[in-house]
Amino acid sequence: MPRTTDGDGTPVPQRLLAAATRLFAEQGYDRTSVQEIVEAAGVTKGALYHYFGSKDDLLHEVYARVLRVQQERLDAFAGADAPVEKRLRDAAADVVVTTIDNLDDASIFFRSMHHLSPEKNKQVRAERRRYHERFRALIEEGQREGVFSTATPADLVVDYHFGSVHHLSTWYRPDGELSPQDLADHLADLLLRALRP
Amino acid sequence: MPRTTDGDGTPVPQRLLAAATRLFAEQGYDRTSVQEIVEAAGVTKGALYHYFGSKDDLLHEVYARVLRVQQERLDAFAGADAPVEKRLRDAAADVVVTTIDNLDDASIFFRSMHHLSPEKNKQVRAERRRYHERFRALIEEGQREGVFSTATPADLVVDYHFGSVHHLSTWYRPDGELSPQDLADHLADLLLRALRP
DNA sequence: TCACACATACCGACCGGTTAGTCTGTCCCG
DNA sequence: CGGGACAGACTAACCGGTCGGTATGTGTGA
């Protein structure tokens, strides 16, 4: 039997990624030592450097995974067959729900991006931009149709909305009385209300 | 002549604080060494530890300064003699302008808060809450008067707005075509539009 | 079917370098 | 001449990453 899955059923690379995600979110990238990560995953440094090129590489993998998932979901909502108000509302609410579902990823995202090497940072920013642009296109579509106000430039509206989404990890408490879906509905509502002509 | 001001006219503690602020914002708290700070301020470690108890202490001072300034400004705007819509709009726009004026402080704030020791973190959160509550009271006042919609709970609206304000340091580029005041007007407008009954 | 060759997965000691913080001493002002 | 304001050498603790080594599995040719 290959060691890759021993002890626990999940393969070692995934276990390392999961441990790193949790620890990065809890203590920050710089404050998490490679030693801590491998201990949490039940392996040693040899295993980590067998699968990943560097600690930085590990962080990059976390980002790549999140970005991939979010882009896929946005594309699905934005490309649906429905009026633009509904598509925007659904997309805006969905990003809130999935962000809450992965609050660890979110806090890593907005706190640790500058720890990535310049080239990887550039790569992440490029993917991030693609995401924003898809969202912006949705708003511009509604503005052309006349269902959204043109008082504010679309890209500003996008940054306004995502600013608060990114900050969810700072103030949202899962044990509060507001369910993720309720919160998502409220935030999407705020966006749509701000866009009323 | 006391050494306290030599070389440059500004006192050593302030020079240390200014250097630390810039470096923390540029590279993050953990990636900035005490050695770098003292070199940038033109002194040595002896001076730093003469005035500050620890590196953590230095970060806390940065926070304290920002919070004090922002609270004062908010109190002034919120307590003015004007209809609540105008007071909220002015306060919402002002926080954007002053945040842009001190983008370094802002990026430290939202990236490095978790580096503070638990007790200092608690202290900062408490002051932060006071600030949010003053802002929320303004919204609730308008809701009672019937000039703001009650569709969304006031504290959610506050978090929505400040989420994007905190994220200004991520995406706002001072060399862009949008002046700080223009941007502030747009963001305040988005808030007020979302609150229309 | 057995033996040999090789690859993969992982261990853990180790290294060069960095860091926050300390401590002793010096200088200068009142 | 006493004490505040620093200088700067020093230390003890880590940290990311490397590397030689081992155990297990897999493919292949006779």
Automatic annotation (TrEMBL), chains A, B:
Matching Pfam families: TetR_C_24, TetR_N
A Gene Ontology biological process term: negative regulation of DNA-templated transcription
Residue ranges: DNA binding: 33-52
Species the sequence originates in: Streptomyces longwoodensis
Record lineage: Bacteria, Bacillati, Actinomycetota, Actinomycetes, Kitasatosporales
Domain HTH tetR-type: 10-70
PANTHER family linked: HTH-TYPE TRANSCRIPTIONAL REGULATOR RUTR (PTHR30055), HTH-TYPE TRANSCRIPTIONAL REPRESSOR KSTR2 (PTHR30055:SF175)
Domain of life according to the entry: Bacteria
Name by which UniProt lists this protein: TetR family transcriptional regulator
UniProt GO molecular function: DNA-binding transcription factor activity; transcription cis-regulatory region binding
PROSITE patterns, A to Z: HTH_TETR_1 (PS01081), HTH_TETR_2 (PS50977)
InterPro entries reported in the protein's UniProt record: DNA-bd_HTH_TetR-type_CS (IPR023772), Homeodomain-like_sf (IPR009057), HTH-type_TetR-like_transc_reg (IPR050109), HTH_TetR (IPR001647), KstR2_TetR_C (IPR041490), Tet_transcr_reg_TetR-rel_C_sf (IPR036271)
Gene3D superfamilies cross-referenced by the UniProt entry: Homeodomain-like (1.10.10.60), Tetracycline Repressor, domain 2 (1.10.357.10)
Keywords noted in UniProt: DNA-binding, Repressor, Transcription, Transcription regulation
